[in-house]
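Please predict the structure of the following assembly.
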Amino acid sequence: MLDMRYLRKNSEEAKQRLRDRGVEAETLDQLLTLDQARRDTIQRVENLKAQRNEVSDKIAYAKRQKEDASDAIAQMQQVGSDIKALDAKQAELDEQVNEIAAHLPNLAASEVPVGPDESANVEQRKWAPAHYDNRPEALVKTDWVKAHYDIGEALGILDFERGAKVSGARFLYYVGDGARLERAVYNFMLDEHRKEGYTEMITPIVVNDSAMFGTGQYPKFQDDAYRVAGLDQTYIPTAEVPLTNYYSGETLPAEDLPIKFTALSPSFRKEAGSAGKDTRGLIRLHQFNKVEMVKFTKPEQSYDELEAMTANAENILQKLALPYHVILLSTGDMGFSAAKTYDVEVWMPQQNVYREISSVSNTEDFQARRMHITYRDENNKLQLVHTLNGSGLAVGRTVAAILENYQNQDGSVTIPDVLRPYMGGQEKLEAKSHY
RNA sequence: GGAGCUAUGGCACAAUCUGGUACUGCAACGGACUCGAAAUCCGUCGAGCCGCUUUUGGCGGUGUGCGGGUUCAAAUCCCGCUAGCUCCUCCA
């Protein structure tokens, strides 16, 4: 949610910044007109209420003195019905204002490149382990490189067919060493984040509507959510929702900030509108595992913490020796709640592209305002915290990247060094006759 | 799933039957006493939200779990809901 006072006072600037986020200027004009009408109504109804309070006190006093108050009561009957009518009008205006305000995306930070879509994103840095000679393209020059889903199926560790049979398209079973590898990957990630000072959590994976509103998924993006039939609850699209809403409605002790959480959770997405895209493999599923990071910070420290969180995501890829680059998203490519977002993209040699494996965002006070998370500053005044979230990392996509980058010509896959302790010292994935 | 009870400031509670300025204590804050502290005494104390404003502040509105209703007036009466507790039932 944006700060209404800012929008009123700086409407021209706000209009431009909203236009950068794809919102038409008329939308803000409409909002401000309704806001003005709302405030006019409030003033009228509050005057009447002040009058009612005053006269009611007099009536109470008169009754205590056993005096007659029927004149005053008759007079207040009219005021009472006027108040009722104006209250109703205000409630209607409140709803109209909220309807627009709740759909406005966050404003981008000043250093975010302005552009309509991903074409305006800006690469920040590139990394690859030494044996790639800083040229991840090197691997693709061999003609035997296979896609991760072909590798996984050949090894018998990814079963998409039975996933589709039992659940539908975009679901799968991990089998045997595949399941073990997935578990090794997320245990490794959680251990790393724990070392970095994140508190490990296991969260509910079903949340109520106010939680989905708090982080910004609702009301605008309900189509992509798995709602529990008949209940006002939703299967989470990311652990960001339960982690960030953990403190909703609370005032945090300033000395505890920044607070850092991490959690593994399944994530559920309908992927509405992406029919036909990435139909094979681990890239775009209705259910996938993700290790998430969330931070609550003071405003002045949130951008340093954004850099730190991005480094936490990169650290995982560096320890896994997977090539990646980091891009700064443009105003047109950022998510609804974000003020600034870095995407980390891992090298996928078979497709010859970088694929998103993490997205790290500072939402500033956008989510905190929606869910009322505050702290007391040096002057003992309540301030909204800043919230950040980032994947650290998408587990399934990490497994896909490992399969492709660590594949050998004989069809086996070498297990990255750092994962071997998590797999009982196993060094390779090889085809087995059966599991 | 069934039955009963409960929900009031940061905490503990009163007022609910019988509608009329939400009691008191603790904590907190300011002050007195003291070399300093404790104790004691005096004073302040409804968080948050909304609106207006001449903005270190002032005024008004709202605010007794949430949402409605009745009434000149609701903590109090009525309806719906949520959460917690106890018992029954079920369950990994």
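The first helix of chain A runs from residue 4 to 9. The mean pLDDT of chain A is 91.
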